Batch of 2 targets.
Target 1
Amino acid sequence: MNIIVLVKQVPDTTEMNIDKETGTLIRKGVPTIVNPDDLAGVEAALNLKESHGGKVTVLSMGPPQTASMLKELYARGVDECFLISDRAFAGSDTWATSKILSTAINMLDYDLVIAGRQAIDGDTAQVGPQVAEFLNIPQISYIESIDDYKDNTLFVSKAYETYSVKMKCKLPCLITTLSGLNTPRYMHAKHIFNMDAKEISMLTNEDLKLEKSVIGLKGSPTKVFKTSVKDVQKDTVKLRLSPEEAAQKILDTLQKEDGGQA
Amino acid sequence: MEFVMNEKHRLFDKMLKEFVEKEVKPIAKDVDEEERFPEETVRKMAEYGLMGIPFSEETGGSGGDMVSYMLAVMRLSQACATTGVVLSAHTSLCAWPISEYGTDAQKQKYLKPLLKGEYLGAFGLTEPDAGTDASMQKTIAVDKGDYYEISGSKFFITNAGYADIYVITALTDPEAKTRGISTFILEKDMEGFTIGKKEMKMGIRGSSTCELIMDKVKVPKTNLLGRLNKGFSVAMKTLDGGRIGIAAQAVGIAKGAIDEAYDYVKERKQFGKAIASFQNTQFTLADLETNTEAALLLTVQAALLKDQGKPFAKQAAMAKLHAAQNAMNVTTRALQLFGGYGFTREYDIERMMRDAKITEIYEGTNEAQKMVISGHMRKERG
């Protein structure tokens, strides 16, 4: 099974602050990590390879320093890494990014594409599904477990808020993974010390040959109108309730405030 | 030590920190309290290639160097000194002499599985009457034609009982004293080879320290390690390298103690403010950090010299001496910052202080290191 995993290098948001003046993230000096949902995707791909054979290829779009993350993924055991990097891609929103990624994927052999559900810096959860649309293959998002693979069919569980649904899909397809799907393995000492044998393949727009109108800021239909920081109110009450009880509680509270109008 | 680290060292250090945080730190307290050998951790270390770090891939190792190995012992010991010494004894004292002096057949049979972590290794030199004066060996190997018959006992053997392979010394020419000692490879299941009393220790309580009893153990001639009657030199060279491991362990313990103290002083309030705001606290921590950095640099120097194939015995002895004394000093003074709480077993700092003490004793006491260092000075200066 040839598996392509889409991975993003993100700032470690647990160590991040927001500039209240501009409403943007202060990225300076913040360590970068492999996006957690994507790392689960890498682990899932390595597990599938170990049980069914094949190859795990990682694709990442980002600035040249993304190479450090790709080396870490080599050390975790992936077979090949591609870095898609070009100044022309800067400013791409999820639509343009998906266009770029799917064009690169189409240059490679694949049976399964795995993307993390969402990146912890943008939280859109749009890239995986959009890539599937551009590739014109079926997709299942929010995978919480991969249950089986036989006869070219993948059996998975898709998570909803309070329940999950078992689904199956013939390959090729795209799935998006949740970080809770598995526990990622550590880097392996042998892979680390054998790093010189591994190379990161670079892909630029000279390889992808995309029109300027569909990439970068120009090719991005998303327009950010305003970002703001939400203040946490100090009189927040924390309650541990089931979804049904929580709904009832909210309703009761609103009715009380509304004088029984709601 | 950033100035000597290449990209692989940095990546390996990242891997180690992640491994230690998830696998070693959470059980360090239990390993000590229950005096439990951390078998599950050792299995995981094997799974990730940590049992054969400074050996080439052709021999079954992971293809790293001494600097990487030093980092591993240090990071493990930063959370759990027991786990650190399991790796150090296995790597430096058992795998290394086989890789250096072993025949191809010995390497195939013993080294490969040791480096993969399928076997755990141990080393036996010390005897009840042969400590720092290792020449007073009584264990004897009698040539019986087809095999050697070994009888005697070894004391304070790290990893004993859990190890599969033991590198031990025995007299092959009792008259010749140190020129009549040879080194042998023993398997745990050899007839007449048993594990004796387990020591109840002050520190590194999860590590297994036992007596080895050899009662007419038949050892095939092919298990002689290195040349006949050259075993004393094999043992001394092995200990030279081992000191880098123990120095790294001592640096790790000191770093761990500084970590604990640094967190504690930010939380602990006296006279209306965090004790971290007092200059006494800041100056104490600055001292400990500086001296620990010096210990680390001495250790890195010894590891780097060994990687470069240059003489390192004097530097390894200096690293071990300074790092061990520093670990004792740092843990004692860091504990002082905790006040009464530091004396309770609720905090890890008391374990670290107990663990630090052994680094001043095993693989050559502080005094033995000074003998080695002054010996080198005499050679250098005449």
Target 2
Amino acid sequence: MDMDNFREMFLTEAAEHLQLMVDLLVQLDSDPQDQDGIDALFRGAHSIKGMAASMEYPETARLAHHLEDHLADCRQLGQISGVEIDWLLEAVDLLELLLGDIRNGRPERNVDSFIAGISKQPEAAVDCVAETKTVELTACGRGQLIQLQLQESVAIPGPRFLVLLKKLADLGTILESTPSTEDLLQGDAPNQLLVRLESDIPQQQIYQQLQQYSELQVITFPDEPVEEKSPLKRSPDKSVRVSTELLDHLINLTGELITNRYQLQNALKEDNWQELDDGVGQLARLVKNLHHQVLQVRMVSLESLAGRLSRTVHDLSRSHDKEIQLKLEGAEIELDRAIVEELTDPLIHMVRNAVDHGIEQSGVISIKAWRERDQVLVQVADDGRGIDPEKIRQRALEKGLLNPAQAQTIRNYDLLQLICHPGFSTAEEVSETSGRGVGMDVVKTAVERVGGVLLIDSAPGEGTRITLKMPLSLAIIRVLMVECAGSRMAIPITRVVQTVEISPEEVQSSGKQLMVHYQNELLPMLSLRKMLKAPKGAHLDPIPLVITEVLGRKVGLVVDQLVGQREVFVQRLPSPFDQIRGCSGGTILGDGQIVFLLDLQTLFDRQRV
Amino acid sequence: MKQLLPFTVGYETYALELVEVQEVVENQKIYPFPGSPTIVAGAISFHGRIVPVIDLALLLDLPSGTLGQRLIVLVNQRGPVALGVDQVQAVINVEISPATQVQNYTERSYINDIINWRGKMVGLFDLDRLQLELESLCAQVGG
């Protein structure tokens, strides 16, 4: 085993220890005298120190040692204070940054200033932009981005911005700014300024302070810039821990498969059809079992996210001065690793929304996960002020997302789903008026990328519940096969409400749009042929319809023929073809036929443009 | 000295560097896929993978009605992706020098050089550029 392998092992184990320490710290915050917790923290620091020292990472070892000393004192005292917890959390953040340095082959950063008690490390926050994903979350959470734009009439923007920077420096610590003070002094005169400010003052007050400057046209608090990443591209050096029990299962199965092979070979030689038939039956069972076990290897429980979420709630409740309790339920539910990874940011975002806009002074955020057939549902609920549908209605009208007639008839539930519309949430004032919406389109996109669905339910004064319906596994999904314009295509079953066949007499028309009655609702009918720009097909009787839901609205999709359901192994299309809207991948059937997976959401979007 | 794989599209001859080619396949059924730009003829099943096929005749604006007769599957680092052409010819060894170079720029960004090979004009594909071209085409139908 070479040094790289050791390093990999060290990084994995150290990261696990750090994760555990964060969990413990958040728990200790509510129970500061938990002896076992303090002991476990001490052991974590001790292990990291030992490993780092033997791997010769002096700065990491030194910081871990410092933590260990500190925790030894806490152990003697028998308790740990809130201030200490915050300090320890910062130390853990710094350790994560150090691990990031090691991972990227950089020299470790110096920890002198932290140990000497100067805990704020401005360069850490600037640095973290280039960091890997995990580090970015912990470190970029520091500070708040503020974007300022002057009115066009301002003749000399440079000096104005210098004044504003000075004002902001009074409100907190400026971690970075674009352009920087130096650039401004040298006469750089942009029309906007981006500042990362670390401050104890709530956003609202900063906003009020800045509003006093009449020449400011726009004051916004943008979210962290989301790094452009291609869907589901994973960093290559990921390793998976497999329990020996599972590994033994796999080995046993392989053994059985070998036996099965000889059985089949013999049967073939002897022309023994009965035996051959038995053998193939056996093979089918084994392959199914193998498939199941291999998928197990990819499964991780949501528990891995719990620490991150508790930490977010802890930090946010401190910074917003609110009393927030986080309840987790069903964290033992397992999902495909890739889905859990893809879910991390959306969940944190939703928790953040709940703290920012939902909960007023004190409240409960509950995150619940449960299984329903081959789907996993994850719900983020708060008992805050909820969303007022009237405000969304107005907003949607202003933004032209609904015409006045639609705004009259749309149900409240359907209205709520509109906050995920990109056109809806880019407007910054939304966070003021509707209480929610910033970045919800990002959440929705992430959920849909892994084949999930997002539903919002809320009422004024009754809190907000956001439910994500996710497939259990990414690779193998159940689909509805349909035939259209001579091609076979598949629709993920999670997208299908129902399939029906109607007679042409049931079709009504309202203007140009054909409509059909379905369970007391009048649904618009859309032709898949038309959406795929295929020539018009023959007259159908009965008309096969796939009832599906798009942006919270049910529609009837007309196809040539309903073929049936089956499980398929989905391949993503190679880049750049995965960018094509309307198609989210494909599968090769047993006979070599390729069936493409329709991405109805993007296909509809395209239709509307 | 470069090893090139020449092929024809319509009446014109083009070539790729042999190291970029994984396999040449023929008579494959091409499955059209929903929402693709027109130059993407569809995809083939190639050793258990779904490989998109570019209709080079359409891309180059040349007449051709024999799509699917020969498909050049590029190496996996290139996607993989397959190029639909009319005929594939025997591999040639060429020294690219000013003597063989007819023109070192063309109106199509993904045609790198045009060389004179035994009296025949051969356009050399720049696959990095082609990739960029495809990216922008896919993004167009995407965005």
